[in-house]
Every structure is written in structure tokens, then in C-alpha cells.
Amino acid sequence: MSASEKLFETSRRIFPGGVNSPVRYYDPFPIFIKSGSGAKIRDEDDREYIDYCLGFGPHILGHSHPSIVNSITKQVKDIISPGTVNRAEQELGSAILDAVKEDQIRFTNSGTEATMHVIRLARGYNKRKIIIKMEGGYHGSHDYSLIKSGSGNLTFGVPSSDGIPEEVSSTVIPVSFNDLPQIEEIFKLKGKEIAAVIAEPVMGNAGVILPEDGFLMGLRNLCDKYGALLIFDEVITGFRFHYGSYQQLAGVKADLTTYGKIIGGGMPIGAITGPSEIMRNFSPSGKVYEAGTFAGNPVSMKAGTAALEVLRSEDYSRIDLLTDTLLTSLLNALENAGIKATGNRIGSMFQFFLTNRKVRSYSEATMSDAPLYMDIFREALSNGVFLAPGQYETNFVSFSHTPDIIRETVERMVKSIDKVSEDRRKRK
Ligand SMILES: Cc1ncc(COP(=O)(O)O)c(C=O)c1O
User: Fold this and answer.
1) Residues spanned by CATH 3.90.1150.10 within the chain?
2) For the whole model, what pTM was predicted?
3) Which CATH class is domain 31-64+315-427?
């Protein structure tokens, strides 16, 4: 019995389902990771993996980047979490605001908190109730976002969640990403009640799904026409494609934006940015309550600042290229093995779907053979490649991945895919 299998027996006893976040579970048992450096992680059995899950997104510089480690180490010696205002929060706050060209920022402890509070802010600001969200869009695990949500929610086939009062779910209308006419119809019916549209500008929790030309601008125009706020959830996309937001590249500005993951350098974090005219409605200057004991804690702040300092001078085209090479090679390997597949990629985020159809929406993503993806995932794991552990998650490439690591990954993946294909043939 492996160390991970043994450890998981204990975890099953002490945690519901053996985990502290559902996407961490996969059959037959998840591997326990004890260390990581750059593009590689090591498990409790001392096996090494090339990592493409990368902590579900924060580690764009790879694991335990020395600048981040040094910065945190220094900070914890001074103080961990005073629960007071501090210089470190100013430092990171200013760096983010400069990069994304916004007036104000409020830090939270997670992306979930950021999207939960931004929805309250939008409703408080324009005194309306209804929120429009994308089917398969994931904004964390709170009541407003767990309606036709993605990520683990999609993996486990739960369209929503028990425990969400109808009074809450009835205020959230799920719509289809990239389907502007459908969204326009809803605006025509409910326009005056719609507080905000919230969307990941690139969907990252139904696999990777790119916005089609004109879709984000269409959302912007509808929001303007009906007086609703446009919220982009950039928890995954913020600082992922360049030193700033995705919306800057897309040329479509949201009213309010949420961030997380990368901006915390691997420590827990979330943030909301926007114009002071809206942001000042947060308490204590306004009447929309939002708070957190650990919000703006200097350890997360220092980790984020260190990460952004490194990112500022990174050449993002380097990881774009590596990701392109990797995805193209994976799709070739799948084709050679007789497995129908299609891939979506933007910058360093990618996913392959096991279907011959293009994937432009959540419903098209669900056409993929998700159990086959998990077979490939498990085989890759046994060959030392840690992919995102679910068809509806995103794979990431970091600045620590080198051309040699990508080559090694492709070799291991060809072997894994061929084995899965061979096993399937035998079973038939
Ligand atoms: C787009 C998006 N928003 C919000 C969240 C929630 O962030 P957190 O897990 O930090 O609460 C996630 C998490 O994966 C996400 O992908």
C-alpha cells in the first residue's frame, strides 16, 4: 500500500469525503504532496511529478519561487497577521491598481469572498436584485455562484447545491456563455431588475472556453443600455497573460473586477477593484458591509508583491509558446491513438476535450468523455505528470516549465495516452 493510500484512509475518517475541497478528490485516492519546486512536485512516496495543476492556478512562477519564499520568511519574523492596517497591503494594493488602471481595491482572503462581496456591492450600489451568471461559470462556493456552476460542481454532476434557499437562487439567472441573443432576451424581460452580469472573461471552470469575437463587448453594451454593472471575475485570468488584467487585452472594461490566485503569490487572497464612485460604498465609507480578520494580512501581501515584482519583467510569450507546443503535441498523440479530441488554449492555460466538436460553451464542454479524461489523468499520474484532476478544470504552464520539461511531458503523455487507448481496445 502506498503512503498516499494509507494517509487517505486517515483523511477519510477526519474530513468529509477525505478532503477539504471537493476537486482534490479523484479515484481511487488522491496523492499526498509534500513538497514542490519550480515545475515539479513530490509526493509522500517520494515520487516526482511535472505539475500542470499548479495549485489550481496561483503558481505561475512555479512552486516556492525563491523571491516569494524570502519575502514571506522575512515577514513572518516581523509579524504574521496583526489584524490592523499595514504597509504591506498598501504596497500590493498600489502595484495592482497601477497595473490594472483602477481607482481602488479591497482585499479578501479568497476568490470566493471577493465574488460574494462584489455581488453585494453591485446590488447595494444600484439597488437591484438580479444577477446574471454564465452556465458553467464558477465564482467560488457561495450561494450566489453555485447555480449551474462549474469546476467540481460540474465534475460531480451537481447542477447547484443543496442548502441554497430558493429565495436566493431565484435572484440568479444562468445564461449561456457566447450566446448574446439569449442574454439580450433576458435583459429585454428583466432589464430594470438586473444588478449585474458576472462572468469569467475566459471561462476556466468548464475546461477552458474562450470568448468569441464581440461577446464581451456585447455584455458591456447590454449592461450600459440597461444600467446594470458588468463584473469580470479575473481570479484565474488576472496577471495570467500579461502584467495586468485580461480585460485590458480584450479592450472591454468591466465596472468591477475580482482577482485572486496569482496576485497572492501562492498565499490565500482575493481582491475587488473598481472606480472609487462604486468602491466607496463598501463600509466603513459606505453601507455595503464587507470584512475579514485576515484580509490584507502582510504574509499574503508580501507573497503577492514578490510575485508581481518578478512577473513585471517576465516575457509572457515564452509560456504561450511552450503551452502551444504542449497542447499541439497532446492533440497529435490523442489523434494517433484514435481518440477524438479538441483543445482550447489561451496563453498558458489550456484544456483538451475528448469530443470531435468545438467547445464554445458549457453545454459543449459536457459533450466530452469526462471518464476517459480521468483515465488519461490517472495514467499520466503513474508516469509522473500531474494534470488538472478533472475535465472541467484548467491546466496551467508556469515560467518554471522549460522546453526540456515540456519535451519530457510529451514523451510521458504519449506513453500514457497509448496505454489508455490500448486498454480501451482490450475492454471492447
Ligand atoms: C474564476 C474563479 N473565481 C473564483 C474562484 C474562487 O476562488 P477561491 O478558491 O480562492 O475561493 C475560483 C476558484 O477556482 C475561480 O476559478
Assistant:
1) 31-64+315-427
2) 0.96
3) alpha beta
